[in-house]
Amino acid sequence: MNLKDQHSKAVANWLLLGVGMTVIQIALGGITRLTGSGLSITEWDVVTGALPPLSEAHWQTLFEKYKSTPQFNLLNFDFTLANFKFIFFWEWFHRLWARTIGLVFAIGFIYFLVKKYFKPSMVKPLVVLFFLGALQGAIGWIMVASGLEGDAVYVKPTRLALHFIFALGLLCYTYWFALSLKVEALTADTEKKNNNWIKKGAWIILTILTLQLIYGALMAGHKAANVASTWPTINGQWVPMGLTSADSFLLNAVNNTIWIHFVHRGLAYLLVVLIILWSFKLFQQKGNTFWNQARNLPMILVLVQVALGIFTVLSSAHIVPGVWSSFEWLAQIHQLVGMLLLLSVVNIIYATKN
Q1: How many CB atoms lie within 10 A of CB 211?
Q2: Measured between alpha carbons, how far is residue 258 from residues 34, 149, 213, 225, 271 in Å?
Q3: Pairwise pLDDT comparison (81 vs 44), residue with the higher score
């Protein structure tokens, strides 16, 4: 391996560290949502907010600010300071981890720049990467601000979905950038026609999966899991009542909980069928070591993901507010596997890009 290849792999490893940290950040976002912690910090102090309250007086000041929010007045009016400290921790840690990601990228960028590890072809992707990271932070604050006004007791589900899908976009972009520096694309040993079918199938699946992940965020934002805590039917019906409302189609599609639940299940079944059929083509295609490992993942992950979705829905009948139990664990793992499924499809798109 020559020096330039070593430099590229070092940059790739730095990017993959960022991928891992971003996965953890998205998981922390899920914990923040499930614990109802997202609105506990009412200000966006980029620098001073990195430190937690260091005195009882500071805790009281922040608690008083939280008491002015709709969430406290309409939902958590019986909260004590101890309750507040619990939800504060998760939101603070979520923000701290985001700052840590920024620090890791900044330090790595400076180090590789001084050492002249960056090739000219890396400059544009790096600029895009930093822009996406900054944009994600801005969207995060816009999302939080939506729950601090009017009669909102949670952030707006549409803004939660936007925050989530942009985080996944950042995740996929960073991962693709790392792959481009570390992994060779597939050298097909079979017919070009078969390879083209795989590529088209990958993009179709990616599109449907993106829509599915958006609906997963809407499910979370609307707390729609327990509107139908039954399976295989939805409250005893295959096509449930109440799929339409007086709203326009767009508003119905993002606000009607039974519609959101129905579409989220339907897209899951569609993805299972498509990925199984697609996987038969993947298994027929021969290639390098990366390909031979990557082609097995989509079908495994989609089957695990659907099973987790079913158990999550069934467990939603036993949700106890303020208590972390089986539903919360399953929902969190369900989100994690969804991210891994997304990256597994990115693997195939990258491997067949030539």
Answers
A1: 16
A2: 20, 26, 17, 9, 20
A3: 81
